[in-house]
Amino acid sequence: MRYVEARPCAALAPYVECYWALELSGPAPVGVHRVLPDGCLDILVDLSAGGGPRVVGAMRTAEVVPLGDAASFIAVRFRPGGAQPFLRLPLLELTDVKVALGDLWPREAREWWERLAEAEGRAARFALLERLLLERLPGREGDAGVRHAVDLILGARGQVPVRSLEEVMGVGARQVERRFLASVGLSPKVLCRIARLQHAVALSSGPRALEGAAWALAAGYYDQAHQVREFRALTGLTPGAYVREQAEVGFVQSPGGGDA
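Now predict its structure.
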């Protein structure tokens, strides 16, 4: 089992978080494989199933995914809000949804599938994905106000008062929410919660992993009870149960967890 990421070129960096590939062979990995929300939207191509490219919208809660005995995936993960200029529809329509890319790009979806299936090797597929995206590079970068607000939220790991975004974007609360839902598919409050969760997860691993009250406060929660409520709501588990699950099973997209 191998999971690999690659960074985009400078022209696509405002939109794309990374390209990723997952190769599975042999017995299916044992245990629960939980994908956490990260505010991103992915376009995923399952080269082993022949089902064509799919769009996986931004998730508001974690999802447990099944992994088969053999699979080959190649994908692009867009930054929060980065996909909207390419897909050109309100991203709220794709939140918590998986749709065939052919429903959105009928001609391009077939071309992507055929050319990616013909490409030899992961590096060639990453390079091809980049060329295909550059061909669709929008003339405008989308909602600049939302992009700036998203950068603030992610940079502060979710510790941004939502009301402060009204001043940043120069509009009222309703307009902030409406523009976030259209460009990101999530409200600013939900993106803040997800960014804080991702920060908490990062603090729970490695040689300097935190736990207990120190972990909750370092991650930006008011106290442990607040952290427990948020973890239950977003992951379906308590913080302790999540850490134990990761220690026992891990996930193929966890840092360092892709080689097996």
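Residues 235 and 242 are 8 Å apart (CA to CA).
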